[in-house]
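Forum: Protein Structure Q&A
Topic: Joint prediction for protein chains with partners

I've read a bunch of threads here and the consensus seems to be that you should model interacting components together rather than docking separate models afterwards. I'd like to see that in practice. Below is the full input, 366 residues plus whatever partners are listed. Could one of the regulars post the assembled result?
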Amino acid sequence: MTTRKEKIAGDLDRQFAEMGFAEQGVEALRAGADVSLRTLYKYFPSREAMVVGALEHRDKSYFDWLAGGPESGIEHVLHPIVRLGDWLREVANTGCLFLNALAEHPDSAAIRETVLDHKARLADEFRIRLQTIAPDKDVERIAETLFLLHEGMTQTARLHGRDRATEAALRAAKAALAAEGIA
Amino acid sequence: MTTRKEKIAGDLDRQFAEMGFAEQGVEALRAGADVSLRTLYKYFPSREAMVVGALEHRDKSYFDWLAGGPESGIEHVLHPIVRLGDWLREVANTGCLFLNALAEHPDSAAIRETVLDHKARLADEFRIRLQTIAPDKDVERIAETLFLLHEGMTQTARLHGRDRATEAALRAAKAALAAEGIA
DNA sequence: ACATGGGTAGAGCGATCATTCTACTTTTCT
DNA sequence: AGAAAAGTAGAATGATCGCTCTACCCATGT
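Posted by a regular:
Agreed with the consensus. Here's the joint model:
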């Protein structure tokens, strides 16, 4: 079951993603979530808390999105990049919500922490998957490369189109894995 | 010789880079550029024009920064990525000013155009360099990969540190070139 | 000498911002 | 049924925003 707070957080996520952070005043957020100002402030007592709430919602959504997929082989490792391609095609393609938030609020400690936490967990995702299929390799180093490709793909997609970006990232990932002796 | 407008644009660039776009009101920009409000508005008749001016200044700075370097071989192609590493170490490491601006002003046509123009020219930079050393290869496709690595490196640097990001990008670039038969 | 162009300082304007508050209604639980 | 909790609408507040305007200053060139 989803609580009211979670529902509102989802609405905030969607609105920040569609319209950016700067252009969305609290009144617009309220209208988009279809709640009263009082209720909105009850769950998210400041605009900063609304941003953090939206990011936490997006964090959950995205890791849910990555769940499943091949359990072994190189596909297991590449799966997050493939799923990012699906996300860009099916959900949204407006850059990284976390990095956009960081760009907009560079001196909010709470937002910064939420972003860094999400990105650290994403890097872990690649490490864990690599550890599963190639524990004898330099997992740390290869995971860093895959993480970099994931970030680059997100940004390139909004500039050059999703499909070109997805293809480039997957090709580069395979080349990087091959160079490390992972086929 | 640098005109007054160019000097102010440089100040705007620096301020947006250091403090982000959202937190900088026009009065703060004025103070940072050490001019009067009237003069600032004379050269940049709106806040949007100030953002565009800063981006155009950054565009020039960055392509100047990429100039020079090895004239042949794989180093010629990798040079922009090496120089990005220098930039992140010596100049600033706060993500991409252009993408940050786009995140902050998603529905300003002028800003969007300035950003897309810069990124298109950056992609061209890789194409031209590839054309020089490997005109028989699929320049378009390989350039896309290098562009993606450049973008990913910029974002990864502020999350995981410049040096790790630089190493990962260079390694991935070499692997991608090797996979295409460019040594 | 003095007009002119380009500069300064900073007050003022209307709009919008995040946030709080009052007053009322609906839902939920016992 | 009735109390308590949780919702609604939306006005009010004070701060800040982008931007304009007035009034004055100081170089420079003929």
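DSSP finds nine helices and no strands in chain B.
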